[in-house]
Design goal:
The protein is mainly α and 301 residues long. The protein has helices spanning 2-10, 23-31, 50-54, 61-65, 74-77, 85-95, 105-108, 121-127, 137-160, 168-176, 184-194, 203-214, 216-229, 235-246, 252-262, 272-283, 292-300; strands spanning 13-15, 18-20, 40-41, 102-103, 135-136, 165-167, 200-202. The chain has a three-stranded mixed sheet with strand order 2-1-3, with no helix packed on it. Strands 4-5 form a two-stranded antiparallel sheet. A hairpin with a 2-residue loop joins strand 1 and strand 2. Helix 6 (85-95) crosses helix 9 (137-160). The longest helix is centred in the middle third of the chain and has 24 residues, at 137-160. The radius of gyration is 21 Å and the shape is globular. It starts with a helix and ends with a helix.
Length: 301
């Protein structure tokens, strides 16, 4: 339920008693803790859908649409922003009620419980203006992969402050942005003491790390052997576990940054359980902010 209240907090449009998000609102809801946006009333929601066909599918889809269209798809997409391919496959199969490996609009409506019959951007994009096209998994996966890439690029731009590289201290800020771990002060002290000025992380390195975090549960399973054996995790073992579990090669640059931040006692080993706790906090960012309940109540009055 908290995800719905998060939606209400970021929605910037009201139409006939219903709240709507623009694609810009959706990106903000993923990236930020909160954003001050004025609530506007709109009088014609259908004309805006003409922009959907003009937007080029890909990792700039939401940015191209901006505030030109309205939607209520956040409650669906927020659940999938950080899902690996296996998670998306399971989600698609759950939508595919008749098991024909295609999803029809009527099947998709079952997860848009508050749709109220409005033909939204997401529905037009997936099922066409008449709602008669069928959605295949390859199309659904490509859309979600592009969405994940777009969110990653937007977060990189935000924390790199528009530069082509992200300072390692900014990478630490991104990692810890949605967390309230008791060791946060120690982590920040590690950043100050161990990371030299001018050390940077590229966009591609950042994207690779994000893909790793999207496969966090598989990585956790791969690391259980060290937990059982009560063995500290060294860099080579950590990097190998990432590769085995997710297929991703973390660069030595990113690996060095992770160890400098999260190695609490300076023995060049990692307490992976604590590190995983920080990342899981990030993965649950869409449902963590209970204060949106209070915000939502205020907007009703």
């Amino acid at each position: 339920m908290i995800g719905i209240h998060r939606f209400m907090h970021f929605a910037s449009l009201e139409y006939e008693g219903e709240y709507y998000m623009t694609p810009r609102d959706f990106l903000f809801s993923v990236m930020f803790d909160q954003v001050e946006r004025k609530l506007f009333s709109c009088h014609c929601i259908y004309a805006a859908l003409l922009y959907v066909a003009k937007a080029k599918p890909g990792p700039t889809f939401f940015r191209e649409l901006g505030d030109k269209v309205y939607d209520i798809f956040n409650k669906v997409l927020l659940q999938f922003v950080a899902e690996p391919q296996t998670g998306l496959q399971i989600a698609f199969k759950m939508l595919d009620a008749d098991g024909n490996e295609q999803v029809e609009m009527k099947e998709f409506f079952k997860v848009e419980l508050d749709n109220c019959g409005v033909n939204t951007v997401l529905l037009v994009h997936f099922f066409g203006k008449q709602g008669k096209e069928k959605l295949r998994f390859s199309e659904f996966f490509r859309f979600m992969e592009n969405l994940q890439t777009e969110v990653q690029e937007m977060e990189f731009i935000k924390f790199s402050k528009g530069l082509s590289v992200m300072r390692k201290e900014d990478f630490a800020a991104w990692l810890l942005y949605f967390t309230d771990e008791e060791n946060n002060e120690i982590y920040w002290q590690n950043v100050k003491d161990r990371i030299e000025a001018g050390e940077n992380i590229s966009l591609e390195e950042f994207k690779t790390f994000c893909k790793f975090t999207n496969n966090l549960e598989d990585f956790s399973i791969a690391m259980q052997m060290f937990t059982v054996a009560n063995r500290p995790v060294k860099r080579a073992e950590f990097k190998r576990a990432v590769k085995v579990a997710t297929g991703q090669d973390l660069s030595d640059n990113v690996l060095d940054t992770i160890f400098k931040i999260f190695d609490l006692d300076g023995d060049d080993c990692l307490s992976h359980s604590e590190f995983l706790g920080v990342l899981r906090n990030r993965m649950h960012r869409a449902t963590r902010h209970s204060r949106f309940l209070e915000v939502c109540e205020k907007r009703k009055h």
